[in-house]
Amino acid sequence: MPTNSLYCKHSRPKDTFLKVLINLAAGITVVVLVGILGYILVNGVPYITWQFISTPYSEMNPDQKGILPMIINTLYIVVITLLIAVPIGISSAIYLTQYAKQGRLVRSIRFTTEVLSGIPSIIFGLFGYTVFCILFRLQVSILAGCLTMAICILPTIVRTTEESLLSVPSSYKEGALALGAGKLRVILGIVLPCAMPGVLTAVILAVGRIVGESAALLFTSGIGYSMPRGFFRQIMTSGRTLTLHLYQTAREASTPDAMNIAFGTAAVLLILVFLLNCLTKVVTKAVKKG
């Protein structure tokens, strides 16, 4: 039997070394991740109570250290931002892949989108404060934070949706067009549903970016912690999210109780992100099955 046969293949020392190195790197990554998550959950979960989740927050009253206003503000910012950014992002991706003539202009748009996705969020915060809070006179408010976050997540939605649309086999589109279907109907009825798992992934990535953002919202949505007194009134006032509350509480922590509140908020954030990821898998499986 030839020595170069697949049945007589011997492992080389270089391959063994690389395999060990890859496994070691993966192990270190998992250990660090588990350590961070475990440290936060161990210190934060004991302080998560119904009173902590369902009561308002007050800096003057030591008995009112709940995070209910911050949970509501976070939901406001997530929902409003997605309502603004998702239609624009998906429509832009459809135009770039299905309508625009592939050339220098489209390549420039894609390059610009990739550059925007790598810009630090503090720059978006400064831009949002200058344009939305001052120029548009929205002041420091939840609405200004939503508009700023919409700009932050647009590159992610556009690029991920674009890749999902490009991954749909061209034979689907060509077959539908050959049967006499219009271009818009083909896109909305065949191409977009086939790319829907990737679109959902883009939306969930955007939600994670919104939930975890602090720098951009610090300049635009502010650090108010009052209970909402109406939807339209609330979005025009300052309101901190869970991430901003975590940052503000940890920064001003002067007592052990303040750090406990910060750890409890961090644990709630982790649980929220975990639930969002689980929801993503369920929705994605349902869409693929459909």
Task: Provide the fold topology.
Blueprint: H1 13-44, H2 50-54, H3 68-99, H4 104-117, H5 121-135, H6 142-166, H7 170-178, H8 183-194, H9 196-212, H10 215-220, H11 231-235, H12 242-251, H13 256-289
Q: In angstroms, what separates the terminal alpha carbons?
A: 51 Å
Structural class, from helix and strand content? mainly alpha
Shape: globular
Average pLDDT figure: 85
Count every beta strand, where a strand is a DSSP E run of 2 or more residues.
Answer: 0
Main beta sheet strand tally, sense and closure: none
**Poorly predicted spans:** none
**Share of helical residues:** over 70%
Based on CA atoms alone, the radius of gyration comes out at 24 Å
Listing every helix as H and every strand as E from the N terminus to the C terminus, the arrangement reads HHHHHHHHHHHHH
Strand content: under 5%
Number of separate helices: 13
Quick take:
The protein is an all-alpha fold and 290 residues long. 74% of the residues lie in helices and 0% in strands.
What do these coordinates show?
The chain has 290 residues and is mostly helical. 74% of the residues lie in helices and 0% in strands. It contains 13 helices and no strands. The chain has helices at 13-44, 50-54, 68-99, 104-117, 121-135, 142-166, 170-178, 183-194, 196-212, 215-220, 231-235, 242-251, 256-289. Helix 3 (68-99) packs antiparallel against helix 9, helix 7 packs antiparallel against helix 8 and helix 12 (242-251) packs antiparallel against helix 13. The chain is globular, with a radius of gyration of 24 Å. 32% of the residues are buried.
